[in-house]
Amino acid sequence: MQGIPPASWDSLCRLLPHTTAVNPFYGRKFAAVGCSSVPSSPADFAARFPFTAKAELVADQAANPPYGTNLSEPLARYTRCHQTSGTTGSPMRWLDTPESWSGMVDDWVKVFQAAGVKPGDSVFFAFSFGPFLGFWLAFEAAQRLGCMGIAGGGMSTSLRARVLLENGCNVLCCTPTYALHLGSVLAAEHPGTDRNRVRTILVAGEPGGSIPSTREQIRRAWNGAAVFDHHGMTEVGPVTHEVPDEPGILRVLEDSFYAEVIDPATGQPVAEGQPGELVLTTLRRTASPLIRYRTGDRVIARRDPKHGLILVGGILGRIDDMVIIRGVNVYPTAIEELVRSVPGIGEYRVTLDHRNPMPELSLEVEAPAADASFLEQKLQAALALRIPVTVAEEGCLPRSELKAKRWRTIGK
Prior knowledge:
Number of strands: 20
């Protein structure tokens, strides 16, 4: 990617020799391919330094339990332990020193500030505080910014709705799916209330925050509140935040990341503006660093004169999520965009059926029959595929406060 900030390149050139010298995982990895010097240019870095894959990290932790060998400090220096969700394989534990943790909190403060959150705001965190990284970072960042942080862990959705109202919260943090669900419960159980002061909703964990039709549904459910997208991963921390007043555009935090976009099949860089896989090197989270980490996120990146490296359309989906149905490439984000463009549809579920020689897709939706029929027509027009849509009883499809699991596979 052209135009890399000089400070980011300098940070990378300091990180590589230090990590090689003190980190057992990367010491072995780089020695195996002869990477013993600082790269002379971004092209040299891409040519000589290998990618890091999640499978390598999982295998390293399995062989060296419980934390693996990707540690650049003595174990006694680490004070935080978090864990990935394991939705695409075995979960990983991730350790942080006070310094690396503080750096990520600083990045989350930037996310809040970009969203217009200010000292004195009251922020409600509508999720259980389990082992995942982002919840804890966001909570501490709200405190560092000077906000009132209210944790919604261990509560039913009904109780969360009540607590949010009773505390006069004006900022909500959750997934896009849960924002819709919580909004519907709030409307059903507290109709016509004038106590709903939420003006800003920060969403992450799913692509929906950058999908126009999903954003619009969330806005309608919350009386026109602003929706603000961002994304991150337990392995690397907060990575991007929405560009204010430019929905669907995510800005990479380049002080903390050296980013590349590659062709997932060849590993070669893609041209600016072309879709590819996001690859990240952590520049501040150096106690458990990741170098050329293949995130699996599908993005379109370009460099903007004002905002630096941006991802157009946000996270477009996962590289491995695409399915081919009768010769047509279908991404979950495309299905969600079409579903959310029909206002009468609540929750939905997609079934990928491999029981026949050719795989088939079908949808279940919580919606009136007329809306289901209309969606079926929209899917046919947009994708040139006949995808059956059936009506499900209201409230029968699964909901989650974390990443929604709307796709299921049968026959494979």
